[in-house]
Amino acid sequence: MASRSTVQGNFLLPVEQAEWLREYAFKTRRKQAEIVREALADYRRAVERDDVTPDDERRRRMTERFAQGRGMDLDILLEADGRIWQRES
Questions:
Q1: 1-26 pLDDT tens trace
Q2: Can you give the pTM of this predicted structure?
Q3: How is the chain split into domains, by residue range?
């Protein structure tokens, strides 16, 4: 990756995520930036696949809302027939 140009940016993380990242980087002896780049690449591959299922899309929307610090909207969890997603009757 050294040959690619980079951008330096500041991203706010919840304390719990920042602490986990710090500890994980220490345990695995890897740079935090390397771990974040790998996670973003994995996330990008998952989002850009052609075979995205409704469940994948729902999980993406939930993750996006939580990453933005917003709560859950019930409409994300509703199936087309009005049932709650993955809830046993």
A1: 455 787 777 778 888 999 999 999 99
A2: 0.50
A3: 13-48, 52-89
